[in-house]
Design goal:
By secondary structure, the chain is an alpha+beta fold. The chain is built from 10 helices and 20 strands. The strands form 4 sheets. Strands 1, 2, 7, 8, 9, 10 and 20 form a 7-stranded mixed beta sheet that branches. Strands 11, 14, 15, 16, 17, 18 and 19 form a 7-stranded antiparallel beta sheet that branches. A 4-stranded antiparallel beta sheet has the order 5-6-13-12. The mean pLDDT is 91.
Length: 402
């Protein structure tokens, strides 16, 4: 079966590529199996780091979209960011917020597979979705330079867009081309507890019909994003909250219901604040930071093998965030060793190796559009910006000639 474009993956980056390929005469998405498989950061299996199946980790994404441009790794213009945002949230004005460190939390997060199904209905046969796992690909000459095979069949294409995720794309390239493109380390965000402050001004929450905006804060010269959250119940005790989070990990799916079952009033109060912006005023606040940690984990190149945290590297990044926290009269955490993985793995591919083999070169038939080939994501949540970068690259692709 022949297609102008094939996209491997069905998460947010894959969705961005498909949105950008609106001009393509025919697009095939190989989204992975209906019943997929999670990989986790460690043997406790509490925090997922990848999902090999329909929708990818977008199935568990909370939907947070930063409006700051602390790191514009896709070189996007404000107009492009606003246009893609408006595709999903047309009733939420955004332009005046771009460049400001706000976090938009939508009532309805973007779910990639559901969006792909909607696009399939709109494109009248030009978009084909298959719940198949790509086993590998090969490059050849002629009008159809790409061959992709699954357990079911082989497909031919003029272009291939790789969006299988930071842990799966490196192995797919190695199996297909026989080259070792995976780095020995992979980068991430670390979520850490900074401490507590009393008497701070309540965060100003702005609600709209499609979601709400939370304030955040940056510090010059540091890749960290700070947020305040009301400290209630046992969370008023220093370090109590991060100790609970470190035991349970970050919840996915229906977070509020899961936390309620744990019978933790403090964690439940935080969940209601994080999801709905409820009860922002409090005499005491917890200070958290999301910190960019380059080369945070040792990576074998095999998703089935647990990542190995590089504790000294992670600790150096979080310690810097603690030293420079912009809050007066801060009572610092006494459990500086406790962090939560950010579920933002990226930079798992050696870009120079890719380019030496013709991947990601301008006009090349194989393009990597997921976070595996992205290094400088900054301290903010990168998922929407990654989708934006994939959208732009696919838009710029010149339609192939039959």
């Amino acid at each position: 079966m022949d297609f102008e474009d094939i996209v491997i993956g069905s998460g947010l980056a894959a969705l961005g590529a498909v949105l950008g390929l609106e001009h393509s005469r025919s697009v095939l998405v190989l989204g992975g199996p209906h019943v997929g498989q999670y990989a986790h950061y460690d043997a406790r299996a509490t925090v997922p780091c990848s999902y090999l199946g329909l929708g990818g980790l977008g199935n568990a994404w909370h939907g947070v979209i930063p409006t700051g441009w602390r790191s514009n790794f896709g070189a996007a213009a404000d107009a492009d960011f606003a246009a893609l945002f408006a595709h999903f949230y047309p009733r939420t004005p955004l332009r005046k917020r771009l460049g400001q460190p706000h976090l938009f939390v939508p009532w309805r997060p973007i779910r990639p597979w559901a969006e792909l199904l909607r696009l399939q209905a709109q494109r009248a046969g030009r978009l084909v979705l298959q719940a198949e796992l790509a086993a590998g690909f090969a490059l050849a000459g002629g009008d159809w330079p790409v061959r992709v095979h699954t357990a079911q069949r082989e497909y031919r294409a003029r272009r291939l867009w790789l969006a299988a995720g930071a842990l799966h794309t490196p192995g797919l390239i190695e199996r297909s081309l026989g080259i070792r493109a995976a780095r020995e380390v992979v980068s991430d965000h670390a979520f850490c507890y900074i401490g507590q402050v009393d008497g701070a001004s309540a965060p100003v929450i702005e609600r709209g019909t499609e979601g709400l905006f939370f304030p955040a804060q940056h510090v010059a010269g540091l890749d960290a994003l700070y947020t305040l959250r009301p400290a209630r119940f046992a969370f008023r005790r220093l370090d109590f909250g991060i100790e609970q989070r470190a035991v349970f990990g970050l919840p996915t799916g229906n977070a509020v219901a899961k936390i309620a079952r744990r019978a933790s009033p403090g964690l439940l109060a935080e969940a209601f604040y994080n999801r709905f912006g409820l009860f922002p005023s409090a005499p005491r606040y917890s200070v958290y930071a999301q910190v960019l940690v380059p080369d945070a984990y040792a990576f074998s190149g095999l998703p089935a093998q647990p990542l190995q945290p590089r504790s000294a590297v992670i600790r150096a990044a979080t310690d810097a965030a603690r030293r420079l926290a912009p809050y007066a009269a801060l009572r610092p955490s006494q459990r500086a060793e406790l962090i939560i993985p950010g579920i933002h793995l990226h930079d798992s591919l050696d870009v120079a190796v890719l380019q030496a083999h013709g991947i990601n070169q301008p006009g090349a038939p194989v393009q990597v559009v997921d976070a595996s080939a992205c290094r400088g994501i900054g301290p903010e949540h990168h998922s929407f910006k990654m989708m934006l970068a994939a959208w732009q690259r696919a838009q710029r692709a010149v339609p192939a000639q039959a």
